[in-house]
Amino acid sequence: MIRVILTDIEGTTSSISFVHEVLFPYAAENMAEFVRDGHQSSLEISEQLDAVAEVSGVERKDIEGLIDVLLEWIREDRKETSLKALQGMLWQKGYQEGAFRGHVYADAADYLQRWHDRGLRLFVYSSGSVKAQKLIFGFSESGDLTPFFSGYFDTRVGAKREPAAYQTILNELGVEAGTVMFLSDVEAELEAAASVGMKTVLLVRDGNKPSASSHPVAEDFSEVDALLQAR
After folding, report:
1. What string of DSSP letters covers 171-217?
2. Residue 71 sits in the same domain as residue 164
3. Which pTM was predicted?
């Protein structure tokens, strides 16, 4: 029996376009000023810049060089933990100032509440930082959805296409793999989750279902729920 739902965000609970057409451009437009203003006054920003310098090889004192690295990583959509952390800080500012609201599909918002009320434990696993995850659900167009979640995971547990990351999540949750269902729009992530014993569902939000998949396929969360009920 499924007792835990682990869900991706982009392309699963939320539109890919919101991330790429709203969040990423906002970060690109504001990152330089954000770093220049905060690199001396904010320990949180400073710690992430330490990590950027270590990974990139740019000298820590070269703030403009580090900014150039961050902007390049944004263009590449690089899954670098330090970048994701800084983006999360920036997006918090944007959400709080009302620059945008988090996009969550109406069916996702509906079933997140239904599953929570039914006693399922809900968790997020996304390449975006935990801060960014909490923001998209906390400031969503459907209101604050964070009360429905029991926890959040990001790339600090590992890469989403690596089985070890899902085993780490299982270890932290202390549950059997067969009681967890992972939802994602990326087959490689589902393969990694399935390899450690998790149940999986492929979300296809554009309606173009694949001709073949080794995973159950759903176009929205109502179809995911039907799969849950059938188990």
Report:
1. HHHT--GGGEEEEES-HHHHHHHHHTT-EEEEE-TTS---S--SS-E
2. no
3. 0.88
